UniProtKB/TrEMBL annotation:
Encoding gene per record: clcA
A molecular-function term among this protein's GO annotations: monoatomic cation transmembrane transporter activity
Keyword hit for Ion transport: yes
Record-given protein name: H(+)/Cl(-) exchange transporter ClcA
SUPFAM superfamilies: Clc chloride channel, TrkA C-terminal domain-like
Keyword ATP-binding among UniProt keywords: no
InterPro entries tied to this protein: Cl-channel_core, ClC, RCK_C, RCK_C_sf
Main location: membrane
Gene Ontology terms: cellular component: plasma membrane
Record localization: Membrane
Amino acid sequence: MARVETVLQEHSVPEGILLRRYSYLLRFLCTGALAGAGAGLVGAAFRLALTEGDLWRNSLLTWAKGIPLWGWLALPFLGALAGGLAGWLTSLAPETAGSGIPHVEAVLINLRRLVWWRVIPVKFIAGALAIGAGLSLGPEGPAVQMGAAAGKAVSDGFGRSKTEELHLIACGAGAGLAAAFNAPLAGVVFVLEELRRNFSPYALGGALVASVVADMVSRHILGPLPTFRLIEAWPVLPLTTLPVFLVLGVLAGILGAVFNWSLLASLELGDRLNRFPRWLRALLILFLAGILGYFLPEVLGGGHLLAEEALAGKVAWTLIPLLFVVKFLLTMISNSAGVPGGIFLPLLVLGALLGSLVGQVSGLLIPAFQGMVPAFAMIGMAAYFVAILRLPLTGVVLIIEMTGSYRHIVLLLFTCMIAYLVVETLGSRPAYEMLLERDLARARVEAEPSPVGKMLMLDFAVEAGSDACGRLVRDLELPPDCLLVTIRRKGREIIPRGNTSIQEGDHLAVITPEERAAEICHELSGVTRCKFQQKLQRF
């Protein structure tokens, strides 16, 4: 017994080290809360600006339709002015174009810089102008990028280390998503599933604190209700509806692949239009969107009201195909304008329309399924989200929080699983992964400029089914100029030897010259089947 106690004492962590760890974690959580407060304030203000933009646009359309001769020109003309200004502002900070989430991911792997004092005002004003004028883009991408910028601002203000700065940026990004949709848990899951893929106390605790604080700030400003305010109680769906949800999952997977392919095509179209100034591109696209919106105003903007109508079953199934196609095409054209705006909300609207269509048609064919359209629309949103972004946990949690309903969790998970399998079978890649790699390839960026000989430590998480699982260290065939220094496994660190076996869930700490970091990230991500991982520190 005495021998056991001696061994335990030898391997125990000194009390002083534990206190320093807890003190550091507490300090980090406090700064994470500040980042969440900043992200919540900016995100709520952005949502208010977009709401005012929708009201202004709808009022203008009502007034314009009272003037038959030239009223149809009012929205295109004013929208074009707003688009031109948004395009000019975006040219002052090109990193704010589009969603902004791929830019945040590039920042987290140290392949981009985040100038917070430039990103926040440009993203806010240009995004509010472009989306408010009618582009089919959403608020979540700008909210995530501005939240990340808030995290960077807190880090700069307190002089934090590079490692802590990256954690704060990720926490601020998750808090931005929480503020955009009143979905704090979705913000946490988004950080863990998409941005960090790391369940360390700093990633999890910081994201949780920041998202909760951001949600509290947002709810204090905008109100406590879910994003989609549904009044009627939804019926419980019997398991006899399972075949219909199988069809919905297959359709969501196929159309999700079409969305991703079309998204790349729209960006290539934008590249071909690069000979025109950004402000002119945005001006022309918003002029066309204004003409379209005069005849079909439901497709303009993010589409929040259209999603609520689809969730309530108020959109006739005969009109849904037209709305779906027009909203889809307008989203692609809007994405090629090169101004701030996300794709979350438009794709959720498309998913709600798809689910509503399947629900209404199934109700016509099978009378017992009538009255279940809201549940079909909700599940369609989640399935389409998962098919496009390949974030199943984020999608499920986000839809539950946005609708305030978890009664159909089994069918929700089943449909999302089918959509995921279908889109994987079709070979379509996740949207943000494609956008990030495209952005880095176009810019031909391998790393930030750094002094010769400067080294960088990278972290790679070994995922299930990857080539590295079960292999020995000597058989990994690591790239040149790459040194594996430690393996973190279940809270403990292992010094690797040639005969050390790599296991699922291991975190590989790799040292490499900074100028070759991006190339090595790309090679090792294929071996570990993980996306680009964060860079931990320079030394």
